[in-house]
Request: fold
Amino acid sequence: MLGKEGNRGKIIFDMDGVITGEECYWNTASLVVWELLYSKRYLGLEPEANLPEFKTDVTPGEIASIRKVVFQEEKVITFIKKRAVNSNWDLAFLTFGYQLMLLLKALSGKGLENTAWVKGKKKGIDLEHLRTFSRLLMSLHGAWSPSFDAILGNWAGEARGMELMQELSAQLPVRYWELGETTFNSFSPLWKGVQEIFQEWYFGEEKYRKFYHREPAVPGKRGLISDEKPVLPVEKIKATLEKLVKKGWMLGIATGRPLNELYLPLESMGIWGLFDRGSIATYDDVQKAEQSLKAEGQKISLGKPHPFSFLKAYWGEGFKEKELVFSTVLRPQPGKCWIVGDSLADLMAAREMGAFFIGVLSGHSGADSKILFHKEGARLVLPDITYIPHYLAEINGPASRQ
Ligand SMILES: [Mg+2]
Reply:
C-alpha cells in the first residue's frame, strides 16, 4: 500500500504487448469465433473452403489459417484494438457478435419472431439459442455465410470501448433493438458464454477442470496457454525491472488477465517477485468491484479504458472500491505514478486518473501507435520497456541517475 511507502514513485505496467505476448490470446479468440459459427453445438454452419470443420484437436497450421480468415490477416484485431477495446474476451465477443447481428438481420422475417430469444423478452441471446437459429438458417438455403471483413467498413464514428457493442444492437432491425441491447453488452449471457468457451481453449481440458472445478462443455482441447511467449527475451525484461527496483521504484501491474493467467507466466519467467503484491490489479479485482456495484443496482464496466485497475494498483488497499470508482480527487502527485501500456485503452485510463503515460511500441499495432500516443498526450513513447530506466533517469534529474 502506498501510504506505508511514503512518497516512493510507482510504475504500473500493463501486461499484454508490454511484457507478456498476446499471440496465443488472439489465436484463442479466433478459435472461439470459429467454434461458435461452425460447431454443431452452436450455429453449425458449413465451413467455407478455407476453414477446417470444427474439431478440438487443431494443429498449429490450422489455427493459423483460422486466425487469418476470422481476423482478416489481423485487420479486425487492429480495428477493434484501435477503438480502445482492451480485453480479448471482448475481441472474441465483438467479432462473433457482429456476425451474429448480420445473421439476425438475414433471419428477420424468416421465423425469428418464433424463437425462444424473442419470446423470452428481456433475457438476451444465450448459447442455447444459437442452436435454434441454426434450424432457421436452413430456411435461407445456404444464402448466408459470415463476412469477416464486413466489420471493417461498417462502424464509422468515434465509438470506443464498450460503445462498440451498443453500435451492434443499433444495426439490428428496429423491432429487435430492445432485445439486442440485452445481448450486446459485457454483462449479457452471450458475453459470459463467449468467455467460457475462450477459457476452455486457453486452459485446455485439464487445467480448465483444475481451475474452475467443473467439466468443460466441450472436452478434448489441449490448451493454448502452453504457447505463451513474452514480447522480449526474458533476460532483458528481468534486467530492466531489476534496474527500476534498484532505483527505488515500486513496480505494479494493472491487467485484464485473471490472477492465475498472470501468475503462471510471470512466475515461469522468474519476474513475479519483482512486483509489489499490493500493487497488482487483475481482472479478478475488476470483476469483484463490478459485482459489488451490480448488487447495488449499478452496472458499470470497470475494465480498461476505465481507470479502475490502475487506480487499484496505485492506491492499493488504501481506498474502498467505490471510492476508487467514483472519486475524482484521488490524483497521484505529478511524476509519482507512471503507467506503461501499449494501447489506447491504457492511455485513456492513465489520463483519466492523472498519471503520466509511457506508450511502448512492442504491442500489436507496433510503430503505428506512435503518432496516436503523442497526439493523445503520452509523456514518452518508447520502442519497448528496456528504454524506460534511461528515460526516467533523464526526466527525474541527475540525482536519480547515480
Ligand atoms: Mg496491452
